[in-house]
Amino acid sequence: MLLVANWKMNMTRAQINDYLDVLSASPIWPALEEAGIEIALAPSSVYLDHLVRSIREKELPIRVVAQDVSTRTSGAFTGEIGVPNLLDIGVSGVILGHSERRRFFGETDEDVCDKTDLCLRAGLMPIICFGESSADRKSGRAFDVIKTQLQPVADRANLLREDGVYTALFLAYEPIWAIGSGIVAGATDVCEVTAFGFDGFTWPERPKFLYGGSITSDNIVEISACDKLSGFLVGSSWLDPKSLLHSAQKIASVIKEGSLSKRAH
Ligand SMILES: O=C(CO)COP(=O)(O)O
User: Fold this and answer.
1) How far apart are CA 82 and CA 74, in angstroms?
2) What angle, rounded to 10 degrees, do the helices at 142-162 and 187-199 form?
3) Record's Gene Ontology CC terms (predicted)?
4) pLDDT tens string 71-81
């Protein structure tokens, strides 16, 4: 299981330090390792380097993930951060196509494909977000929208495979109506969408699915009943390290009891 905390445009340097102090004081790590649970933190880009260094200093088994990356590799693109920059400082993955980037910053499916291409060629793990709006769902167009988002990604992954590129993808189902709304999708809905994601496309490498949208330590176990999920991408709730630890501990307990497989990624 991969648990990713997307801090979005929150957290100061001091708050990040406090967050890591809480994680590092926790005795949970051996249990997480045993359960095959991995944690990743996605800070604002200005703190990526600081976070990578602090995690190394504290010897925490945590991945650092960026919230976006440029469609360009390097050159005269003021304000952009390229894949080589992220790799240079020890970032291991990047969130792509988040609905907030699509909505507020005009990120297109084509951008998502170009970014995915650069990441996969360079060995950076892409976490590609997709999901329908409330209007899409109400009008019965949810699966059409999801198909529009995922088909180009699958096509690009197949082209990359022809070039001999390793094409392991994380696909994060984040229905827009569930993000920050307190309304979490039901395990059945999540399962239906992930089944469509697996079977509705030809993938060169079987993708792993995450779910995001109003997850808390109170509902995470319920949603993980969808056995096609390999993890979660969480915003507000995991701005609090205690909530992240509590959620991780609950998932670890269920895995230990045997009612949830490790779903290794
Ligand atoms: O957008 C999200 C994670 O990327 C989900 O946000 P919330 O967990 O705040 O609903």
Assistant:
1) 6
2) 40
3) cytosol
4) 999 999 999 99
For the domain made up of 2-257, give the CATH fold. Answer: TIM Barrel (3.20.20)
The rounded Å distance from CA 236 to ligand 1 centre is 6
Q: Which phi and psi angles does 223 have, rounded to 5°?
A: -70, -30
174 lines ligand 1 (CB under 6 A): yes
pLDDT per position as a tens digit, 26-68: 999 999 999 999 999 999 999 999 999 999 999 999 999 999 9
Query: Residue range 134-146: average pLDDT?
Result: 97
User: What φ, ψ does residue 63 adopt, rounded to 5°?
Assistant: -90, 150
Per the CB < 8 A criterion, the answer to whether 234 and 212 are in contact is yes
Contact present, 65 and 90 (Cβ < 8 Å): no
* Residue 75 Ramachandran class (φ > 0 left, ψ -120 to 50 alpha, else beta): left
Contacts of 90 (CB under 8 A, 6+ apart): 52, 56, 64
For the record, the structure tokens of 263 come out as 């779903």
Contact indicator for 145, 132 with CB cutoff of 8 Å = yes
Q: Residue 119 phi/psi, 5° resolution?
A: -65, -50
C-beta of residue 68 within 8 angstroms of C-beta of residue 32: no
**Which residues are registered as beta bridge partners of 96?**
128
- Does ligand 1 lie within 6 Å of residue 93's CB atom? no
Domain layout of the chain by residue ranges: 2-257
Strand-pairing partners, residue 129, are 172
The owner of tokens 């703190």 is: 47
